[in-house]
Amino acid sequence: FTSQTVTENFAKVIHGLNADQLTDQVIQRSKRMILDTLGVGLLGTSTEVCHKVAQYSKIYSSDLSSTIWGHLDFRLPPLYAAFVNGVAVHSMDFDDTWHPATHPSGAVLPAVIALSEAFPQKKKISGLDLLLAFNVGIEVQGRLLHFSREARNIPKRY
């Protein structure tokens, strides 16, 4: 018998998730969340704050690159593409939310898409893999919120 730390247990659960565990209901909800986040993000690309972070991020380059939403000719290293696209989503503040207060898709989707674009052509991931990665990101965020005393106090403060 070995006792696991919270972190070890958390990692084991997340690592054990696979696409077969995505129910039809989870897939449909995920697609709706993704579509909503993309729509809000595309609208957010026109905001002043998004323009500022995009201009700032142009100084970075790498062999890997990912698309800035709404600008097919503008690519950045995956980290900065996720940052710019995440700012675009959050700049509108219409993206999905849950309790305790957070916007899960706006943090997860830009990172998942930026990373998926950075894969070599011969190792491209499937749509189901993308849905799994998205849901793992949402699950991680939800579990971290569950363990956070600070997050539990958000409703009392607002």
Helix-strand layout with pairing:
Elements: H1 6-15, H2 24-44, H3 48-57, E1 66-68, E2 71-76, H4 78-92, H5 104-118, H6 127-147, H7 149-152, H8 154-157
Antiparallel strand pairs: 1-2
Overview of the structural elements:
The structure is a single chain. The protein is built from 8 helices and 2 strands. It is mainly α. The chain has one domain: 2-methylcitrate dehydratase PrpD. It has a two-stranded antiparallel ribbon with strand order 1-2. Strand 1 and strand 2 form a beta hairpin. One of its GO terms (cellular component) is mitochondrion. One of its GO terms (biological process) is defense response. Pfam families: MmgE_PrpD_N.
